[in-house]
Amino acid sequence: MSRVVVLGGAESGVGAAVLAKVKGFDVFLSDNGKIKEEYASELRKWEIPFEEGGHTESLILNADEVVKSPGIPLTAPMIRKLEAQGTHIVSEIEFAGRYDTAKKICITGSNGKTTTTSLIYYLLQQAGLNVGLGGNIGKSYAYQVATEHYDYYVLEISSFQLDNVYDFRPDIAIITNITPDHLDRYDHNMENYVKAKFRITRNLRPEDCFIFDSDDAITIAHLDKIILQTKMLPFTQEREVSQGAFLRDDKMVIRYDQDESEIYLEELALGGKHNIYNSMAAALAAKAMDIENEVIRNSLATFAPIEHRLEPVLSIKDVLYINDSKATNIDSAWYALECQKKPVVWIVGGTDKGNDYSILNDLVKEKVKAIVCLGIDNAKIHAAFEGIVGKDKMVDTHSAEEAVKAASRFAQSGDVVLLSPCCASFDLFKNYEDRGEKFKQAVRNL
Q: Residue 182 catalytic?
């Protein structure tokens, strides 16, 4: 019996372990940190042996294959040891893809991927398809492959999840855009990060589709260097294209094969230039899946913005309050800060998950005028950012109401107050939804 060792005991790792168990492998899971009770109880339920708080080398180095969770960098000592001895290391996505015959639409990119993924999932549901949602959003893809059956999957896939992908093949691959991000994980080399994103295209066949933003200079520069044997569907707001999506006057035009359809921009449920791009990508994916124009139009008009994900709450005295409580890690907060065009009063904090805040330094310098800490222990946040925004522009709070009041004192007309906590919510709240609801209530009470 082959031995599969899973490193990392959160959503991705536990899903991979359950799939390995279902497929009859000798499976063991190891996490260097503490495993949340919800995941530990899942492992016990499936009778999967595991350890936490450190790695036992003798139980790991004897693996035939290792499934690495996306949060673990390739430079981690255990990964280095496994690579040195030639052990094959794969991602959860790669592992699950071997056992899945569903058609897959896979979305990556620096920004907009959660919205685009959710839009496509909604479109396919509206078309009556039997569709699952997974990857970097919702339930683990591997767990669903192990326990459910879908004809289609819409998967949001981060660059970290693509790092150890080799044979995995989407039917439709989408790159929303590429901006400098996570460069600490890629030797501070932008080219390495771009190549990681483009791994999503590595196995595309002529009958598959690649949907991409042709206004994105970094994407286009890389496309010029590689040869893809697949159907290319660009989306753009700058020119007309023969196949793909573009703007004509006040309409979005979708051209696919011989079909051309139009949607008025004012009909789209999601406003803003970035969301036009997201809607274009979703519409192209739906066309490539043979979904009728009427279903596409109605879906793009009725889609509800994702709650707690860059959710505009209210504008008070020309200050916009945004609820991004779902941003429980550095990655999500990076996106939230990056897309802000106005000065930001940033509400951040909670249960720190070993965050390296230095990744956000440049964005904080550029975008943030004041910081409101919302958590029991904010020492790490002060240490990270006091030198950037100044001691007098940082304050500690211990409730959503306190945080919103403090933020409103820092904010001036034309500013944004952004709750994008970077941290888990369990020190002061039940979960991120509870934190988001209390924030929204506090804004309404201002």
A: yes
